[in-house]
């Protein structure tokens, strides 16, 4: 027979949440959050259990401990606060609590009128045994109680001692945990900065920020900061700022040949001046960059850099580290391909190089270089085309030293790869939002994103447009489309971004029908934008972002709930703070051309409302106010006037009842 | 910086199914099954992947290997057959397959009219490299192909060589797996005997099988075998057959005192004659028992024993091993209690005894003793009141030697404890079936049981009655209730059982209103049963069990699907074999008093039917036949005539079209 291991540990602990892939990856929270941990904890028979949640900062010694409490059906709960950035670990310990069992049973015996003399002796012995684990005053109190319980004192006085609260606390504090079960794993939680959860991004090309006919500079970008901050953005994201290759440089509208003087694509990284740690000379100096970062910080904004791990044939690494690229039998380096398509202006790294450790280190150093320059947010270009284990290692390395760093994965690829990148460490992730347009698919997708386990590791950052994505909706939906897609982005997701000024100026012409590429895309040329165009959505965007800032319900995602509507073109959903002090209900007309009317059936419980409650709603976009009662409400949305409502629920509406006392 | 581990293993493997609690427990199948394994397998970029499923019998050396194939959305599948009883382990290995990528890309390049000269050289080198891993004829063929591809032969002839199927097979067989990813865990599957999945149980008290006024014996039971087998049962389950204690012996109707001559409860195990490995003398000898087991086997039946790990105060172990019980301060042994209730005729084992290893071993030996006597099925009494780790160890020990053993957990307790017992090793489990009566709760419960992960470890064995459970439905529902609950049991669950002859004879009087205890329960007295009562459900039960035997769809559970009906009193569900060769649709009127009519909306796809298909249904209970078309069908169920239909779907209905050729 196999010799069993210690068999007297009778408690089972399983089903622990939050837990991502059995603890293989950390769950994500932000600093200041309380982490609520749940678990199934049970044992055989009817004995009572005690359980504690153990937690500590990763790498520190000694567990902190808080008691867990039973919910229902063998489910237990405990919580701890994330006071610092970085990783914490937690686990659970639980044991059969014979004293607690005895204590509960004693009440039943007394209630049934049974003789409890012997029971008091049993209790006295458990208390006496606890003295061996207790110290100081605990020990003294326990000794006193044990003596009393086994004494000749009246049953009543002995019972009175048992029931006094301090004794139960003493026995809990000095419980016999020699046969406690420890959960088999230590689970990790990462506490990110608050901006990991709630951020509002604005992407712009610095080179288009200058005066007409000039190459824009960091100083021009600085001059535009108040414009961007004025719209309520807190992350200013710049496409790559490095020297651009000359070899196979792309021309206007992605032409495979360029004319002299054409600026090329910023993603063709590296030239004679340098590579990923060098600034494109026409943008300015490193000092100019640092100045911009500081100026942005003064306005509460972060500058986010685009890190694209690929090189132009002119990148210094091509000569310095030819072994990092795939060499073809003819001695040339393998350019990027998606056969039969060729991208000869770009060399991808060969992540299977024998020198992979040096490659990994050098790529990781790129991030660390910019962290040193004050950058803490990175948008990573196409991370899904680089070896996935690299990201887990690199982000782990960087965040171990800089837990304030934020990494946004620009991966538009298959769902499991996108999720894996998030598990492997990316703080935020691009999504399929741009292509989710119908009520059913927006509902399905955002529900999936906000359910465990996805919500524990994947933080959506949704973009109605990007320099690569001018959706059909925006091409043909005109102004209501730009308004609605912005409201959807800003209220469905706590983090969103736009590529401007194309967005606020309603840029909507594609290179050709069926394409999502912008005509005359800034990716390949310098553009001038008329920021003062009276049709600009600038004020509307500022209003939406102000609503986001003023309503904490919109600053996290997990409370998102969709409500039934009678019209397939009307989407209705809500978000709320945990205490329901702030509740936002958004309606969007998904038909950008026609007025739509319909009924919504609100889930009042989700909104923190009683079925019989009258409540006021305040449209934060139009300032209109309505008084509603019950779940069913009528809405009419005319895309040419107001294609969307963002209602704040005012629960504290005063009625005549409030005045009763003073009448 | 932390030194990364091998970073060139670019494939990720996750989401492997079947997997119970991240592989902590085995998934359950029966011998002869094909295990279909699925997993998410992906890598960065666009490279092709190859994946294999590795499997072996637990404890054997050397993996068997079968290729996996991609399904959709990065999901892959492979399968292997469970040819022997016992445990097998499996895992997955996958790698970036550069040759496969090259092979696929080459076709695209050729189709696009590109010059592929250099590509053929690249391919040739990969093939040449594979020769170092190949042997014999593989090696020769690869060498030949490599030479041809890099030769001066025409592009066409070289391409022809590339596209010949044998080369791809050769390269797959000799693939470069040096950077393969192995899934991080080895997962376990247990192959149980077929009866673990499909079994039909009949419980009876041997002592009630004798002539009037006598104590029944094993020989009397043997005489009744043809009666039981005639009803189609294949497991004959006997309550404990051991000596019954005299101390605090219970009397008729659970009286705390017994009169001289009263037989006591068989669950008060142990007397002067012996304990758990001794036979109660009045039942016969060990030889009689062995004779019964053999006689049952001749009729295709197993005898299942009830193992109740508790003792009467007269059990020999009380004297031999007082340390196995909890001693009270007054020197007496703690009897069973659920304060304030006392069960002084029973001593529970103290699983926290310091001598727990010896206790575990002795309890395990009880099973092994009876296995030696030819018993391979055990119904375990109240396993949830014994230390849960004991079961995992004991069942593991026994099944390592006797993989044919079957353990049924008689645990009616909280859901997580019931599930844990199944995970820990119990082959089958009692359920809440007896108390699931409404359409919604039957639907919800049986849906939960048949979804992963539950269905991978928990096999329901449902009982409309037991000696402890005479439900309100049976007390007041009269004959239709007995018929319907039997049909529900036998068609919802591949394993079910009844406590007879109480069931077939419609015994329905409870000890008092509100109680589920039988009046004059056989637990405390010897009963006489009139098996030839003309009202007996014997023939009906035989018919239902024959239907089960003739229809493999009813012999497993995972295909169970509920169909919509327009009437809350009409339940409709189906089961089918994987190939839909056998499909059973059952209708049950849950109102035992009134005729109910309504429409069902059948999920035709689940039934393997096309939306436009006309099909015949054959009621296997009444022999009636109907021709149906489309999903919507009308049913009328009169509880006093036919409260239920068990339809077999005949897909192969002949129509005039079948005769076209011969006209």
Helical residues, percent of chain A: 25-40%
Tell me the number of helical segments of chain A per DSSP (H or I, 4 or more residues long). 15
Q: What structural class is derived from the secondary structure elements of chain A?
A: alpha/beta
Strand content of chain A: 15-25%
- Uncertain spans of chain A: none
> Main sheet of chain A, how many strands, which sense, barrel?
8 strands, parallel
Strand order, sheet with most strands of chain A: 18-17-16-13-12-11-20-19
Shape of chain A: globular
Q: End-to-end distance of chain A, in Å?
A: 84 Å
Task: List its traits.
homodimer; 663 residues; alpha/beta; 8-stranded parallel β-sheet; 6-stranded mixed β-sheet; 15 helices; 29 strands
